[in-house]
Amino acid sequence: MGSAPPHDALLPLDPKTFAAESRPVIDFLSGYYRDVDKYAVRSAAAEPGRIRTLLPDTPPEHGDPVDVILEDVRRHIVPELTHWQSPNFFAYFPMNASTAGFAGEMLSTGLNVVPFAWAASPAATELEGVVVDWMCKLVGLPDRFLFSGGGGGVLHGSTCEAVVCTLAAARDRALSRLGHEAILRLVVYASDQSHSTFQKGARIIGIPPSNFRVIPTSAASGYGLTADSVQGVVEADVASGLVPLYLCATIGTTGVGAVDPVRQLGEVTRRHGMWLHVDAAYAGSALICPEFQDCIDGAELADSVSMNPHKWFLTNMDCCCLWVASPALLTSALSSNPEYLNNVSEGGADQVIDYKDWQIALSRPFRAMKLWVVLRRYGAAGMRAYIRRHVEMAKWFERTVSADERFEVVTPRRFSLVAFRLRPRHEGDHHAVDAMNRKLLVAINASGRVFMTHFVVDNKFVVRMAVGGAMTQMRHVQDAWELVKEKAKEVGALPTE
């Protein structure tokens, strides 16, 4: 361990040494991104408990210099990571970073304000209102989600937080009419393609698991919900004395990128007094491009919409936009006004925003800063070009896979996500082809050269190719396809030449 100045001489935040202490971290990260494509995307050496064996059992008695700490990061931590910012990371959905995102994150972290109420940091609160309105306009949402239109937005950490908050608002709206004992009759609806976060959120706010409806989808509808399928399930519940509460419509599902028809579903929810939430966590970023905005048609019928700039919008983790048409319903479910906070709520709730009442926690980071810096640095045109570049890469991958008769694209590409697999050689060998595709995915990922994930749709095991890394170029997508073919031969799925 290194030596450091005596404890009483150490000033943890010293303007005179701030730059010198910070510069090595910037240099370290610069080198990391320069070399990130040389690392195995997912470490083959990583195993449970390994990091504990590499580090001491107790913290140092005296602090270490930054360069010593960074050397341990280089030796012990980096080799064990899955490198989400690698240009060869095609798993899950992208989790973007950018130089502007880092700049905004540094400003946010460096200023380190806590804007839970307007008076706690007025500029941070007001910048957040500006930024969520900017994003609302960019993605093509109706004016009812703007602050000037009677709605408004907030920056959460994740879709899961947004879901719990909107479920709570929907629950309280219903119980104010029905009485609190009616909670056991409330029903939440989502498709078999919806994210599992909705089931978790429903449990958290007290909906019985038996009252969560998973509505089947099919290839005929592109694995999206249909109004008829939802209407049938809802009517059956109403006939049983249950109360339809909340429906999730997804734009860009996790498995295959499916899009639910917002307008048709909105008409169903209006008829039954349900809350309609639109989850555009991944594909919401693509909505800034006019060619994708038909996906949000009918949003004026929604009660809330969410999307994650930290996925595909060059904004470092964490950042989730949530818009609501009626902020009062959200704050009614989430607000608390203890005496020790009364002195920071100035001007009345009708004049200022206290974002503590728009979320679960009290404390919150200055997320608006990093999203604002990203928007300022790249602009709307730059962001559209960024999204379109990934879509074109995914189109190339889809065309190339489709042209090879040994493979099949299981569902038409949506946005920058391609779901594909080895094609069955004979009718009736479903289990064999699933096993072969599993072996293929394991071999691809074991190479360390690429990382992809899988999904199961219509009982078919499919491989997901999600293009969207900030450093990903066409050559990385082309190399990924060559690797897929190479590993297919190694596992015996394709003949060797």
UniProtKB/TrEMBL annotation:
Family annotation (Gene3D superfamilies): Aspartate Aminotransferase, domain 1 (3.90.1150.10), dopa decarboxylase, N-terminal domain (1.20.1340.10), Type I PLP-dependent aspartate aminotransferase-like (Major domain) (3.40.640.10)
Superkingdom of origin: Eukaryota
Keywords for this protein: Decarboxylase, Lyase, Pyridoxal phosphate
BP GO terms, sorted: amino acid metabolic process; carboxylic acid metabolic process
Family annotation (InterPro entries): Aromatic_deC (IPR010977), PyrdxlP-dep_de-COase (IPR002129), PyrdxlP-dep_Trfase (IPR015424), PyrdxlP-dep_Trfase_major (IPR015421), PyrdxlP-dep_Trfase_small (IPR015422)
Residue numbers bearing the N6-(pyridoxal phosphate)lysine modification: K311
Pfam families associated with the record: Pyridoxal_deC
PANTHER family: GROUP II PYRIDOXAL-5-PHOSPHATE DECARBOXYLASE, OS10G0400500 PROTEIN
Protein name: Tyrosine decarboxylase
Species of the source: Lolium multiflorum (Italian ryegrass)
Organism placement in taxonomy: Eukaryota, Viridiplantae, Streptophyta, Embryophyta, Tracheophyta
